[in-house]
Amino acid sequence: MSLNDRQTKNEVFLKNLFRKYYQENKVEPPSSMEKREFGFMFFGAQTMVRHLAFSEPESLQRFLVSRAPSNAFHSAAYYAKPDATRMDEKVWEGCDLVFDIDADHLKTSCKEVHDKWICQHCGQSGPGKKPEKCPVCGEQNIEEKTWLCEECLETAKDELTKLIEDYLTADFGISTDELKVVFSGHRGYHVHVTSEALLDLDQNARREIVDYIKGVGLEPRYHGLVEARDGRSKILRGPRANEDGWRGRLTRGVVKTILSMDESSIPQERKVKNALRVLLKDKDKVADSLREGVWDTVRGVGIDVWGYIARLAVEKVGGRIDEPVTADIRRLIRLPTSLHGKTGFKVCPVPLRELSSFDPFKHALAFRGEATIHVDEAPKFRVGEEEFGPFKDEDVELPLSAAVLLICKGFAYLRG
């Protein structure tokens, strides 16, 4: 069977499964769906079909059943004319505030285990993130094969929890009733904020929110880290760990940074290097003092050094969100309860009270049954309560959700 024949067979197989899912499961439309733009991608096609509108849930459901798209999206924005083909003709009326947390953008050690790159010119391959160019032939045509595992998604969930608890509810005062959490169906989570007070925010205002959450351009002196004079002496003052907003967050981040540092973490710049060596000799005591807002316990560690540590701390405690998703007031976001074409998993709404126990590899599964497939190569993985793999160039019979996952990721093809 040729490569094209395999691909066509896979696409027909997946399309039929997706159609059956939509025949048997009602999709949850977004609020005010008649004001939303919808977009879809289809098996065997590379481009998105968008500028579509549906006035009631039944017409959307009929479309999903008849066309069986690989991916379904709706606008975060509300329009007077959502089906207009020109953006300036749609008449923008507001936009939900949407956040995207994706494991692709998070540092996790598991990527060196399950992700892989392959040079399309010479065939050279390697683990982890793809290089800018092939180290053997120098070509830039490099394919990247990414996977998703429990570490990826637990890390994404931790970032999601931080976003909600530390920023959206604590700093911005957003009610949990105005938050909707959705598992993306692949490697992350979306948060939809439906507060009417935020609907009219333009792109610049939304970028400011992103910058605040990520700590972009944060100046420690504006959050209480200052050098004051007491007679002839200089006194270093800083925030306490239990203060609200970025004041307390900065202190907690500095404590976390110091406790994680060792000799190998010290930079080569002499002034910083010498001061950090002194500081790290008794870092536990220093951390205790910082929590109480005492920043001048170590002689020779001045505000410049603390500023250096504070910049490192921002990277640790700042939120890790995808800026374009939040800032773009015309963004399309995945349709909850639809299927994701890269996994076959459901784009799953998750009630906040169930977030800690939510397991994507169990609760987002859409298919029952079994299938025999040929796996080119796949790492060890779990679906439901069972673990499978690793596989390499072999025929295997798997639960249907596991087989669909491997086919969608391009790691396997249908036998027979």
What does it look like?
The radius of gyration is 25 Å and the shape is globular. A hairpin with a 2-residue loop joins β12 and β13. It folds into four domains: about 5-100 and about 175-210 and about 320-365, DNA primase, PRIM domain (Alpha-Beta Complex), CATH 3.90.920.10; about 110-145; about 220-315, Orthogonal Bundle (Helicase, Ruva Protein, domain 3); about 365-415, Ribosomal Protein L9, domain 1, CATH 3.40.5. By secondary structure, the chain is an alpha+beta fold. The termini are close together. The protein contains twelve helices and 20 strands. The strands form seven sheets. It has a four-stranded antiparallel beta sheet, with no helix packed on it. A four-stranded antiparallel beta sheet has the order 6-11-10-15.
Features:
416 residues, alpha+beta, DNA primase, PRIM domain, Helicase, Ruva Protein, domain 3, 4-stranded antiparallel sheet, 33% helix
Oligomer: single chain
The tally of strands reads 20
What CATH architecture of the largest domain would you give?
Alpha-Beta Complex
CATH superfamily heading of the largest domain: DNA primase, PRIM domain
Bin the helical content: 25-40%
* Total count of helical runs of at least 4 residues: 12
**What strand order characterises the main sheet?**
2-1-3-14
Largest beta-sheet details: 4 strands, antiparallel
Report the β-strand fraction as a percent range.
15-25%
In CATH's first tier, which class of the largest domain applies? Alpha Beta
User: Mean pLDDT, nearest integer?
Assistant: 93
As residue ranges, the low-confidence spans are: none
In total, how many domains does the architecture comprise?
4
Distance between the termini: 10 Å
Examine the coordinates and then state which fold CATH places here, giving the name of the CATH topology of the largest domain.
Answer: DNA primase, PRIM domain
- Overall, the morphology is globular
Rg calculated over all Cα atoms: 25 Å
Structural class: alpha+beta
